[in-house]
Amino acid sequence: MTASSNARQAPPAAGHETRLKRTLGLPSVLLFGLAYMAPLIVYGTYGVLAGASHDTAALAYLIALVAIVFTALSYGKLARMFPVAGSAYTYTRKTFNPHLGFMIGWATLLDYFFLPMVIWLIGAAYLGAAFPHVPAWIWIVAFIVSTSVLNILGIELAARFNIALMIVQFAIGALFVVLCCHYASAAGSPGGLLSAEPFFKPHVPLAATMAGAAIAAYSYLGFDAVSTLTEEAVAPEKTIPRAIVLIALIGGAIFVIAAYTLQLAHPGAEFKDPDSAAFEIAKKVGGDIFVSVFLGGLILAQFASGISAQASVGRLLYAMGRDEVLPKRIFGFVHPRFQTPAINIAIAGVVGLLALKLDVATSTSFINFGAFLAFTAVNLCVMRQYFIGNAGKRGFGFVGGVIFPFVGAITDIWLLCSLDKDALVLGAIWFVAGLLYLGWVTRGFRRAPPEVAI
């Protein structure tokens, strides 16, 4: 259940059905996916990931990439089979049944609710490191209030500055890698710049690295978002599948290289504050000037991402209210003056206040609970399409229709089981609540749930 943040409708011609305009080529789709992924996020979560993986962050990102790539291949196959705007919710609904599709969509709602919270938490953690005398709750509340006001007023700041933000993020990330390499080389790092240490430590159990990979997968979220652009892409049967896989691979390369060089510059997982570990490393390798540049770029990216993420929550809840999946009077409300789903945006802001009681690791795990369920469902959809005989029409055989999605599904389930226990408990409660709500909406599962038009 995903909504494109930049979907434009073509003006309806007389006697013709209104359709989305096909204007996006592969470069534009790649830019959208990478911007949604926000490459600098690898620095925002590094300290938490290094601690969870026992200082094997680079390997954790690599393991997560394996799961993501196999899942990305499945997304690409389904995007060719169902060339309409949608994602795991749409694919599961069409491949299995509306009830299961609803539950997958319900699970991914957890992603949408907690994504802005994580963005605000990371931003607040780094501002707190720069200004230690200012209480963290002030930064969190400031993020929530400012983004909520901007979204209610209808200002789409993140969308307007996507290209500039991507240039800034790539430049800062590249500079960080160079400075880490220079520092490690000057400090005489064991093994030099080519070392197996970030990937392999004999005393670290695989379970610890898998726990890290379960958190690392958060950084990849967004590779599948381009499936919502299917109706706006030129030659979508080729463009969307290629873009999905390329975004996963490019993102994975960025994350692995960043984690590798960070570990070279700062061996070990001991930090003053794991939530702002990259701030500490930035000061070590680049001094106060680079710290200011890094902090400015990270906060700018986080602020814009927060606006976009909260707006996505508001639009998704509005779609569900409009189609009467949720109470229409509340969730289908549009502010008469600003023409925005003001109540939904406010709800997302209130939910974000949970950040005052949570940390980055726990809230990230909540997001990944829904993501791993959705990824697993997508892989299972491909396998079902193969076994019911539709795969052959689209040109993928036993390897692409069974082996690859099976590996993807097993890896996703493994990562799901490696999540924080609190995340698993909350995720299970959320899932059961969705099942009860579905039973109520469908009068005891006797009729199909209403479909959300995205």
Q: If you had to describe this structure to a student in words, what would you say it looks like?
A:
The protein is globular. The protein is an all-alpha fold and 454 residues long. It is 69% helix and 0% strand. Residues 1-20 have low confidence and may be disordered. The protein has 18 helices and no strands. The longest helix is centred in the middle third of the chain and has 46 residues, at 277-322. It has a single domain (26-441), classed as Amino acid/polyamine transporter I (Up-down Bundle). It starts with 25 loop residues before the first helix and ends in a 13-residue tail after the last helix.
Oligomerization category of the chains in this entry: single chain
Rounded Rg: 22 Å
User: Which consecutive residue ranges, at least 5 long each, have pLDDT under 50?
Assistant: 1-20
CATH fold naming: Amino acid/polyamine transporter I
Q: Number of folding domains?
A: 1
Keywords: Membrane, Transmembrane, Transmembrane helix
Membrane topology: Multi-pass membrane protein
Subcellular location: Membrane
Organism: Trinickia terrae
Give the key terms.
454 residues, mainly alpha, Amino acid/polyamine transporter I, 69% helix, globular, disordered N terminus
Helix-strand layout with pairing:
Layout: H1 26-37, H2 41-44, H3 46-52, H4 57-81, H5 88-95, H6 98-130, H7 136-153, H8 157-160, H9 162-186, H10 206-216, H11 236-265, H12 277-322, H13 328-331, H14 342-352, H15 360-387, H16 391-394, H17 398-417, H18 421-441
Task: Provide a short characterization of the protein structure.
The protein is mainly α. It contains 18 helices and no strands. The chain is about 70% helix and about 0% strand.
